[in-house]
Structure formats: structure tokens, C-alpha cells
Amino acid sequence: MKRVGPEQFVALMIVCAVAQGNSYAQGGRAGAAQAPRTAKEAAPIDITGYWVALVTEDWRFRMLTPPKGDFAGVPLNAEGRKLASAWDPAADEAAGEQCKGYGAPGLMRLPARLHITWQDDQTIKLESDLGGQARLFYFGAPQGQGGNWQGISKANWESLPAQILATDGARNNMNRADRTGGTLKIVTTKFRPGYLRKNGVPYSANAVLTEYFDRVNEPSGDSYLILTMTVEDPTYLARPYLTTAQFKKQADTTNWSATPCSAR
Known about the structure:
alpha+beta, 26% helix, 2 domains, 7 helices, 30% strand
């Protein structure tokens, strides 16, 4: 075996030191690249801004307070029908519960205007001009214990399946609408009991609300939020209650009208 002279040994040590330094540098860069992104940074769609509800279905249930006992379309069980038939708005007012129709399971079907912002990098805030309600969507650990009208909402981003995007792409070649490749999923629990409709159609504290927010951009420049909602309630519903709602993007606060809760 050939011996290494002093000069060669020093040169070899320098080469090793440089190589080790490069390895640490690359490791540091790799570590930084793997740092988790915040929910705000990872957002595949932007739902912030001002939005107005487009009431294109169930007009008589959403624009007006239906008469007592009118719960058509809601899969109430016997207990739910009994409670809905006993609705007494005067009793709700006397008890200070005129916001029963403005809890999360009912709020998004009202003809409201919304203001959606990032409260922080892990929390979305949704405010409604009707009833002065505010919802918080937590991507991190939820704060609070619930028991209020809006409950506790846990959020996460989901990617749209490839087959849906492929179908959308084929359709977009015709109408050129743009549906981005992600959706916001919200699961809300721990409500204060309230109404699915303002005329006393009930949901209980055991209800679970699951929502999906999608954004669609039209070539005209208009943007829409498409909201799909499912309420599951073993106390008052015989099966899950599925509804949808649409909102159009607004440029500013024009026509924003802060209105208190009403039991009627």
C-alpha cells in the first residue's frame, strides 16, 4: 500500500472538509424545503372577499319565513316533525333565542352577504350581514368548546379527483369556465340547537354539518362559490339532508346591510 505524504494528506483533508460542508449545506436546504406550509400558503383556491347569495332554488323557503308546519323536503323523523309543528316564534323571542335560524346549518341558506377573510395563517373567518354571525374555520387545533350557534368548524383543503378535472376540462373547452383543482372541506359540530329553516325545522346539538366550497371563474370575469352542505342528525332527521347554495363575488361592501336576528 502506497504511503501518503504530508502535502497529499493536507490536500486530502481539505477535499473532505469541502465535501462535508457541501453535504451540510444541501441538507439544510432540503430541510428548509420540507418545512410545512401554512393553510393560507397551501390554499388551492381563494374564497376571500365579499359574496352575495344567489337564490336560484327553494325561493319560498329561503327568501320568506315559511308558515308553521311547512317542512317539505326536509327528511324529519317523527320527533323532528313533532317539534317543527310546535314552532312558536314568540316563545323564541321571549327566551332570547331569535337567532335559532342563524346557526351554521341554517345560515348558509339565508339570502345573506358574506365577507370572508384570513384571520391568521391557519384560520378563515366568514361573516354574514344577516344576524351579525361569524364563523371560524380552523385548519389547526380548534379554539373554544362550542355550544354556540356556529359550533366548532375543522377545515382542510382537498384536491379534486383527476376524473372530475378531466370532465371539467372537456366542458371548459366549450364554455371556458375555470374550476380550479381544489376544494375547501369544513366539518362543524358542537352546535347550540337551532333551526334548519326559520319556521322551526329543528337540528339538535348532535348534528354534524359537512360543507364543500368550490370556486368557479367565468370568462366574463365573474366568480362564484358553489357550496354543498350535508346535515346529519340522529335526533331529528331520518337520513342526511343535502342542500346547495351559490354565491357571486362582489367588488366591495355595496348593499351590505347589517341586520339583527329575527325569529319571524
